[in-house]
Amino acid sequence: MAPGDPAELKAGVGQSGEMSANSGKDLNEQIIKLIRKQWNLDKPIFYFTFFEDQDPENPSSSFSRLTFRWNGTKSQYHIWTSNILKLDFGNSFRDNQPVIDKLKERVPVTLMLSTISIFFAYLIAIPLGIYSAVKSNTIFERISTFIVFMLYSLPSFWIGIMLIIFLGGGDFFDIFPYAGLHSNTYNSMTSFEQFKDLLWHLALPVFVMTYGSFAYLSRQMRTGMLEIIRQDYIRTAMAKGLSNNTVIFKHALRNSLIPIITILAGLLPYLIGGSVIIETIFSIPGMGSLGFEAITGRDYPIVMAVFTISAVLTLTGILISDIVYSMVDPRITFDKGVK
Amino acid sequence: MTPNKSRSYFQIVKLQYKKNKLAMAGFFMVIFLFTIAIFADFIANDKPLLCKYKDHYYSPVVKEYFVEMGITKWQKDFLNIEWKDLEYEMVIFPPIPYLPTNLDFYSRFTGPGKNGHLLGTDQLGRDVLSGMIHGTRIALLVGFVSMSIAITIGVILGSLAGFMGGITDIIIQRMIEVMITIPTFFLIITVVAFYPHGGIWMIMVVIGMTGWTAIARFTRAEFLKTRNQDYVTAAVALGYSNIRTIFKHVLPNAIAPVMVSAAFGIASAILIESSLSFLGFGVSATTVSWGSILSVARGATYAWWLALFPGFAIFISVTTYNLVGEGLRDALDPRLK
């Protein structure tokens, strides 16, 4: 595990630094100081300081270090916030490249992966959910509900690693590649071959990403549909003598889709944020693995960027789902006093 | 039950729950997992359960508890020895004669069934089955401790928000929204990676401190429902303090949905801990948990037994708690059946 301070990490102290001779120690400390200054790590973290830093030479209790100081514009948080307002995420500690460039590189990968998997999840989940709600208590329904429930509880990282072991060319079958998005010979392929190669690499990660959300969605669809089917207006429609299909697809389906649509808005952060575990297992260069590498490498600007993007997307998702809700369901308003 | 005696709410819930076969299966699985966790030392241990050595009977497994508590000490004969190699007059070993920490360099990466290791060994020759049995403890501990923390925070904040209303409600709702915007799993990885010496307790605290939002929202909603009921007004009118009204009168009626989300929460806490250990952040290197066995399989893909068995254990326990959660939800709200 890497040591805590990114400046020490950058200066190479920790693993090799401690072994170097004493004469190098002073130099090392100077370098660390310079790096800290360059990255603003020597400044106080927040607008206020409540505790003085622990002096390593004469440690004192936290009570005696209690203080109150106003750091104002010199705090790291202020500098970071004012940069974010200019949409400047700073430079990566590791290679000094702008964070925004790295994001531009990684977002499309994750976006492709999650769009495909969400598309498939919805494609299978909605019909299955409707079917199992309508044909309640048949043998097929019971089996499919049970299987969906099992899928829902299957840890994705387990399935991922099992697929790699059994299908990714270990001692068993060598059907799918176990890492990355392209073969080594990708650049010398025709574009059709490139497309095929990409699909071949995407198969396992997309499958692992899909089955979990598929299970979740089809369970939601089923509960939503079950609730609607028991409503009075459905009974009225049945009593009018409308055909089963008309009742289900014209009367029930629309209302039962509402929660499913709002879930889609909730998936927004996941669309771009990606999955840390799946991207790490399959070595896919997406947002999830970017964040993961940043954490292990103490690359603060990237960690902050990933958190910020995820927070903004979550809030946007909540906003969208609220708006969509009030659009598709006129009973819901945001006016006060109507209750 | 006599028909003229009215049933209490929880009796009805219990009856509904018992009707659900899958939920009952989940309930028995919880008991089974707890049994394994409690008796892990008696099921998988390198010390004999009972032995006769130099004309005296000993039970080293039981004795170890007392030694750890500092009540007794090991005899000289038993210090720094290999328990297998002693010459007993009579001996009963546990069914799995290994501790998860016992190294065996002669059988590294042994497949299942070979060299006396039923489910194989890892890169240091540690027995997988023993690791799984002792890992049950960690999984249950993580599940229950982190959910207790989450329930405490969630119930207190949720009931305050629902009961007090006004500015308190607004502040707590904003707190919940701030928590929701943070990508939980990412935050947990960050905290655990930046403070690597925190160990398993740190993980539990972090999971608990990030997992309370759903519970707080459910509790708040229940409080909003019950706040204007007559018995609450009566309690307020009688001059009871807010705390007494909240915790003695309203909370018992509002706790049901909390139980449901706690059951699901235990499942997700177990999942989070094992994924953390899988990524290499979880338990320390000397502790063995389900996720840490699985993480070895990442580097050694030919050792399929390292992935299959602990993963199955995670799957089973997650399913178990999901089943219990489902059963509770259906029992509390029979309309959904």
Short descriptors:
heterodimer; A: about 350 residues; mainly alpha; about 5% strand; globular; B: about 325 residues; MetI-like fold; three-stranded antiparallel sheet; elongated
What does this structure look like?
- The complex is a heterodimer of chains A (339) and B (337).
- Chain A is mainly alpha-helical.
- Chain A has helices at residues 6-11, 23-38, 76-85, 99-134, 139-153, 156-167, 191-229, 232-239, 244-266, 268-273, 276-281, 287-296, 300-328; strands spanning 48-51, 66-70.
- Helix content of chain A is 64%, strand content 3%.
- Chain B is elongated and about 75 Å long.
- Chain B is built from 14 helices and 3 strands.
- In chain B, α7 runs antiparallel to α8 (199-210), α12 packs parallel to α13 (290-299) and α12 packs antiparallel against α14.
- Chain B is 64% helix and 3% strand.
- Chain B is mainly α and 337 residues long.
- In chain B, a hairpin with a 2-residue loop joins β1 and β2 (56-58).
- Chain B starts with 8 loop residues before the first helix and ends in a 5-residue tail after the last helix.
- Classes of the chains: A mainly alpha (339), B mainly alpha (337).
- The interface between A and B is large, with 43 and 37 residues.
Sum this structure up briefly:
The complex is a heterodimer of chains A (339) and B (337). Helix content of chain A is 64%, strand content 3%.
What topology emerges from the helices and strands here?
The complex is a heterodimer of chains A (339) and B (337).
Chain A: H1 6-11, H2 23-38, E1 48-51, E2 66-70, H3 76-85, H4 99-134, H5 139-153, H6 156-167, H7 191-229, H8 232-239, H9 244-266, H10 268-273, H11 276-281, H12 287-296, H13 300-328
Antiparallel strand pairs in A: 1-2
Chain B: H1 9-19, H2 21-38, H3 40-43, E1 50-53, E2 56-58, H4 60-69, E3 90-92, H5 128-164, H6 166-181, H7 184-194, H8 199-210, H9 213-226, H10 230-237, H11 242-254, H12 256-279, H13 290-299, H14 305-332
Antiparallel strand pairs in B: 1-2, 1-3
